[in-house]
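Assess this today:

___
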Amino acid sequence: DDFRCDGPDSPSKEAFEQHDRQIQKSRNAELRELYAFGFGIHHAGMLRPDRNLVERAFAAGAMKVLVCTATLAWGVNLPAHSVVIKGTEVYNPEKGGHVDLSMLDVMQIFGRAGRPQFDTSGEATMITSHTALPRYLQLLTRQAA
């Protein structure tokens, strides 16, 4: 219930109800089910109208959690309070395999958290492998210096 946006005291109730009518018309059963609990999903396998609807709903505060692929964080300006990178390997077709996210990509994704014009603070979390962890720690501490 902590993530629901439709409670009687929720400041997002109006936005939730406005977008709920549109989301209930979607053919995406996962989207409809998750939205009722304050969650959204966004990935390339979704229809473009559903992705656009999710982007608008999240920007309006109608959902509190958006689970998405890295491409959303790279290409769409949707600020968030907290950002989690779950796994740092991405497929690179030019190399024919998986590669680690670059530090530029990590900073781009982390940069969605706590935008000053929208929030007073932000949180960024990275979940990565034990082998990649030292590299990211070194790069992140160098960025902070």
